[in-house]
């Protein structure tokens, strides 16, 4: 029979520099690896949520072998569509089906433990301050710039704060939310406000808004931490001075995991009807260690990060997740590090 | 952020000016169109397109000035396009403006994708930025230096444009004609003025201002273009113009107020209040200011 | 003077977008250096023809020849280049601009890139002196009285180098001395070689000024003759298609109880022209009280007080014995107030709404036209059709927008609405401004009839013939005060009123 | 009347073919099967009942938001609060059905009612500020839209958030609260009937009631309204409250009709759609229905080609923008010669300069 058909449904628009772009990159990797044996397709469903269900229904009838989509919101859509198409296989990235209620034997969910990767980012940020690599006159606290006050963003925050606290229990973290994912100018302004009030290094988790932090870091000569993809690499060619201020990026290898999903699917080993949570152990999240970090971080600090990684993998270190965390508890965590 | 001493207040001022700049530039554009009777709802789309053109052309030519020029031209062309829809096709003004915004959002993303293979941002293009200006002597003076020196060139341009636009509207023959056309097109036509030509000119000029506002975002604030990066500033500019009651100075004060509210909400992030509530500040302050202002006007009228 | 016509209309027809045939194959010629009058009923097509000559409308067919050469007048700009100026029936000023700005608009004096305000002011002052039309160049037009705006209009037309001046009902709101002055100036201009096209419903003015008259009726040319060759009655017959009815006899009514009593009323207004500086006034049932005065002597303030749009700063108004303090327009209208406003399109109606809607607004809450919250559209339409028929409103139909009506016809419809409520107290503010003779006579009958039935009428008018024809008593306003109270006895003439109106005498 | 309206429709159809031709044909030509692309765009929405259903589902909030805009525009109010009212109405409806213990049958009606009342504030507050202080309703409504968004997000985060969910969304809307589906195989729900009824009632209100008549008088000439002694302020306020109630009610209906949870994290854009629909329909409530259906048809057709062919969704956005401009192009649509050509009859009078009226109310 002919080539296999895989489709990735974007419940928004491409260009977010985050899950959607990474998902599309995963489709490219599948195509690159399997060539003519596979047909891949990416469909943008847009931001109008009422259009998502009809698109899933259409696509489910078009004979795809694998239908991939991402984000938690899609779980609700799949819970309506998947039972009606028992022969169709679905993959939900960064979201979980309510398996405990039974059913959904045709959906494979995979979630990323971004809190684990962020824990390492927190160690790096706090460590750079503690060991004086970033001198105290640049600032004494670290920053976090979130797109919105929502669980998937806060999952980065909890790990980041806990990682930093593991280095310095008294660390202060300036936390801002932009309220938008595409306003780079506002992201820059928020980052500048943090830098102005004593932040020396900040972590942006805000899509296109977050990139504004890089411009701010360049302007004031302080430091930024990228997210999802290697943000140093984005500007390496076009703006080396800015790229030089990205200490590292906490990557979330959605692309790699989508390719892995397809590999497993071909082998007949895809664990449908289940959720897999992948993190440091699976190399699904982690820090970019080949860029600025290589020269910036001391060997001690790198060692400390390695130790933490091992601890998380072997379970001796537990990182709090924002999923399922009550608002009160989250507020308590944020209050504990307020500058 | 509790220590609101003079020093932190002064460091706060450049932030206000930065936030105000794109709003003010766009609002002056809206002002010109509004006084000519053709309210430019498409300012958001023109801004976005200006931001895009600036980046692409400066990357292609290696020249920030050419990029900036392209941003102005792109905004002006969209103004001409809007005026084509309104004056030649005789489409509805508001609807054409909304359609233009839709088209600009889609068109810039599409072109970006065609040029870079990326729909999100232009990070792979080495585009140029416009400079910040240090004013020789003043820069050295403690407080005054922070206030007056070191801002982006377009920040100076925006504030200098205020008396420029004010003078243009109130003191030049062209401005007189423009106001006459906006207030009473039939009378203007009777006076031998080509209403259509004046309105076309106003929309093009309005687009040029919007293009400059866009260039500030992509060649000032940051050094790249990203999807929908105007992020609603065009509508804020529309509000600023209306709050300014049709005068250039009023528009400037309204823009400054909006900028101040936004900058304050940014500075107050991390004060421990829910971020959502902090984010309402930039939108509630103008409403309150509007009411206070309107009440004062009412009282003045009542007293007169 | 040559015999070659300066302007020749050749077979001009005009059909408006809504299908109204406003002009039907009109041809006539105008010789240079004359004052040429154009007469006709409301809606006859006079303004349309002038707009075509001025480039504001394009003819559907036919052509215009200027100096024997066929010209296409595509816009007012072209008209101005050809030396044609026009004073419009409806104002064409920009309210927020100053007098000087309005006058120089389109041909501004410059100093460098800027408007030369000094030169503009000088130009206005010079014009104002030359034509003896006093205006304040720095005043904002919005604050001017209608008469003052009319002067600005005329100055604006004269400010261009014109050889042809079109005046579309320019005298409607001028006082007699002002009108006489204007006529003198127009005669001077003719002597200086200017050709003047003059539209008026007042035969007396036509005769006093013009040497030639063209009459239009329902879009057709029905008469074109030197004035020397035609008598008034013949013109009236041409205008109306029939002989005029007998003129109304003045006075002779007996007045009843006081209906509206104004005592010691003051009104502070932003605009000095609207201020009321202490007025005592009683309008009785069954009488018509005429109010004379140069426009801007406090009439607007008085009207806004009487209609409830403003409350007196001091003093009191009683309405059928009850104090009206705090009552708004709606409450007063319920008590029987009606008001024919001076500016018919600004206050009297809505151009974009249909005739039915304009005619029934206000009455729509009556039981005859609504059940519960709902309107009885059929009844409203029937009623409007009756009004249209009774008031002879020339219109495409009851569902046409008001904007499609000529000025006079719109006024008739609005009058029909205000009379329909059988008011106890009617304020008629310039009720026949711009209305043709027949329609004016008709409205005069309505006012007289209303008074005869016991209604109280306050008539504010700049037309002293009208004032003297209708009023039982006359008060004269000057600077917000009553300077004279006169019984309208047979000997009273416009000349006697003049000195009071100009504030030269006082008898109160 | 009917004939020239019909002529307008024929002209529209011809124009659309032209526009789609100009933009889509070059794109389609670059693809393997250009005819299939055109075919899908034009006829695709009617091939599958589900897609036809999508048109109607999408038109439902568009009609109601258009009605809300039309009611306010007719009173001369340039209130853009429909966007925020729709959002807040949806939120308050969901909050009511989640937090208030209600018998099953009362959930939807009470929820929508509460949603309508709460959400209407985004239109009513600017309305009040305008009526009371003469403060520009354009500015305050534009600003309050965003304020409503962030206040709404705060409420979701602190009061309605399902901690078991991985996104900032409310708990699930109970099944009993959902609006019943009308046609199996589609998602068309009771809300569509409500929207149609609302448009009918809107026409009755504007053209057949005293209150609507008075609102139109105020909207078309406030001085005339003052001459008549109409209570202008309360009429202005009333129009904006009605507009707000309709818009917010639409938000609630949308939630209970099509959503499982409250999950908006930004303004959903229905307010702008409402403005577009109202302008297309020239503020006529009955014409809102075809206008909304037309807009949704374009959307569904565009989505279908973007989904099934290599046509970027942005190209579809461009086509839609162009179509909007062309269908309101009076130079073409109301060209007397064209209309005569199609209808064989003289065109009706065109109300003078409608754009001017809108501008006037902005100032
Ligand atoms: N920022 C400014 N700096 C210096 N001069 C200004 C400035 N803004 C305006 N002016 C001067 O004031 C004049 C009035 O301009 P402006 O735009 O403020 O109109 P305005 O007369 O105040 O309008 P309004 O009638 O609404 O009050 C201008 O012609 C200019 O000479
Ligand atoms: N813009 C228009 N659209 C449609 N019909 C119009 C328009 N302007 C005028 N008409 C119609 O054309 C006819 C002639 O109007 P015109 O204004 O020329 O009359 P007129 O002789 O000046 O009357 P009046 O003495 O009342 O000013 C009238 O029936 C009028 O209703
Ligand atoms: Mg001012
Ligand atoms: Mg006329």
Automatic annotation (TrEMBL), chain B:
InterPro entries: ABC_transp_permease
Keyword field: Cell membrane, Membrane, Transmembrane, Transmembrane helix
UniProt subcellular location: Cell membrane
Membrane topology annotation: Multi-pass membrane protein
Main location per the UniProt record: membrane
Transmembrane portions of the chain: 6-31, 38-60, 66-86, 93-117, 153-170, 200-222, 277-294
Pfam families, alphabetized: BPD_transp_2
Name of the molecule in the record: ABC-type uncharacterized transport system permease subunit
Source species of the chain: Kaistia defluvii
Automatic annotation (TrEMBL), chain C:
PROSITE patterns noted in UniProt: ABC_TRANSPORTER_2
InterPro entries per the UniProt record, alphabetical: AAA+_ATPase (IPR003593), ABC_carbohydrate_import_ATPase (IPR050107), ABC_transporter-like_ATP-bd (IPR003439), P-loop_NTPase (IPR027417)
UniProt key word Nucleotide-binding: yes
CDD domains for this protein: ABC_Carb_Monos_I, ABC_Carb_Monos_II
Domain ABC transporter span(s) in chain numbering: 7-243, 260-504
Domain of life: Bacteria
Keyword Nucleotide-binding applies: yes
SUPFAM superfamilies in the record: P-loop containing nucleoside triphosphate hydrolases
Keywords: ATP-binding, Nucleotide-binding
Pfam families xrefs: ABC_tran
Protein name: ABC-type uncharacterized transport system ATPase subunit
Source organism per UniProt: Kaistia defluvii
Automatic annotation (TrEMBL), chain D:
Transmembrane residue ranges: 54-73, 85-104, 110-129, 141-160, 188-208, 241-259, 315-333
InterPro entries per UniProt: ABC_transp_permease
Ribosomal protein recorded as keyword: no
Keywords: Cell membrane, Membrane, Transmembrane, Transmembrane helix
Membrane topology listed for this record: Multi-pass membrane protein
Compartments where found: Cell membrane
The keyword Zinc belongs to this UniProt entry's keyword annotation: no
One of the Pfam families matching this protein, by short name: BPD_transp_2
Name assigned to this protein: ABC-type uncharacterized transport system permease subunit
